[in-house]
Amino acid sequence: MARKTSLRDFQEYLAARLTTAAQGRGASSWLGIEVGNEPWLVDLSDSGEIVQAPRLAPVPLTRPWFAGIANIRGNLHAVTDFSVFRGGVATPQNANARLLLIGAKYGANAALLVSRMLGLKNPEDFSPEVPDVSVPVWGAQRFADTQGKIWRKLSVRELLADHDFMNIGV
User: Which CA distances in Å does 37 have to 1, 33, 78, 85?
Assistant: First the structure.
């Protein structure tokens, strides 16, 4: 009888393989995400799980960027539309939209709704740019790829510590 693998087991296996591969190269890997039309990088170790955006339960009397609550395998996650949080347009909830579960490592059930995943990125393919001091510290780091495209790097720890991010009530 063929062994059945649950989706969660497969995702855990895949995450372990990606982490092992990244460690084997001697450098951490970054995950590329698209927020609105803007490319972002997230440390793979901070990125957590990636899931197809499910139907979200709306929460009344919250800020416009708070997209709602998602039930991911029996655990409730607070979902922020990262584009709206950054001052952009709402993320369309289509086949490309994903939830990036960012809080597990830091003890929070937080998730970011993003436009789409752009895959794993090698940090060696990027060069640092001057930080953008006009934005909060969690998004100030910038990098240029080999084609000259500018990417922002998300500091998950700083984002979760940001008072505005954690204060969802109006």
Answer: 46, 10, 23, 14
